[in-house]
Amino acid sequence: MAKTSKLANPALGSGVGQEAAGAGALGLLGAAAVFVIAIVFFVAESYFLAMLLVSIALLVYVAGGELPNLARSALTVFFSGRHRIEKAVHLQDTVAALRKVLYMKRDDEGWIKIGPIEPGTKIKLPDNPLVRELQSVLRHKKGSEYAEYVAHDYYVDCRELYDHFHAHLDFVANVMPLFGLIGTVIGLIGMFDRLGSNTSVENLAPELAISLQCTLFGAILASVYMSAASRFDQRIKALEYDYEILVHALDVLVQNTADIEVQA
């Protein structure tokens, strides 16, 4: 049973590091191609599209071939409460069930109605690979450290994925204002070039527009990417809370020699 749980999708779990190592050349070439298109839109005075393509070029640069997985993960964390990796979903479900079982229920007067579990208590948990592995660990009396190791295997892959993608989005969010500043400087240079005795507002308006629009669009896009990165950060914290609760719950089960029963 433990052997089955070790099988991981390399595109989602422990393979994140290996993919990142090989993403450099692909990301650089893809970013260069998108950046060239962005320059074309900038020359055509479509400044928002130009800045948007610059942000995509930066994302392609840091993500490389991981970009489709990053997009799917971002949609998942935005529109769903579930985790991106199946192992983390099993951890989430197991923690929810354990909290219901171990929670001490009180009556209307505040007295404990259903209290701490007794030694040898049978605990019913949902049927998933994590629960089956923990069931085997407890029945073989391997102790809390072994149980924590099994739980950590279901936590670490998703944590790595979220950390990785949070770093990608945070990088783009931090760099986009700099590209907005570059556009601003380009506009100011053009405006100063046109200064002279016959200078009018109509002559300076296009360069001033470049300066203001590039700054604005850079700030807007930075805010969007920062918001996306914050969602991954929130999901990391939720995953950490679930893992911490699971570790403490496993200590309770081991100390009370509880027996896990898998729900049909």
Task: List descriptors.
264 residues, mainly alpha, two-stranded antiparallel sheet, 4 strands, elongated, disordered N terminus
Write the layout of secondary structure elements.
Elements: H1 2-5, H2 16-21, H3 23-43, H4 47-63, H5 67-79, H6 86-102, E1 105-106, E2 112-114, E3 122-125, H7 129-139, H8 144-193, H9 201-255, E4 259-262
Parallel strand pairs: 3-4
Antiparallel strand pairs: 1-2
Report what the structure shows.
The longest helix has 55 residues. It is built from 9 helices and 4 strands. It starts with a helix and ends with a strand. It has a domain of 179 residues. It is mainly alpha-helical. The strands form 2 sheets. Strands 1-2 form a two-stranded antiparallel sheet.
> Kindly, what is the distance between the CA atoms of the first and last residues, rounded to a whole number of angstroms?
17 Å
Radius of gyration: 27 Å
Can you count the beta strands? 4
Helix vs. strand class: mainly alpha
The helix content, as a percent range, equals: over 70%
- Name the helix and strand elements from N-terminus to C-terminus, one letter apiece: HHHHHHEEEHHHE
Largest pleated sheet: 2 strands, antiparallel
Q: What shape does the CA trace take?
A: elongated
Give the mean pLDDT. 81
Strand fraction: under 5%
The count of helical stretches stands at 9
Uncertain segments are 1-14
What strand order characterises the main sheet? Answer: 1-2
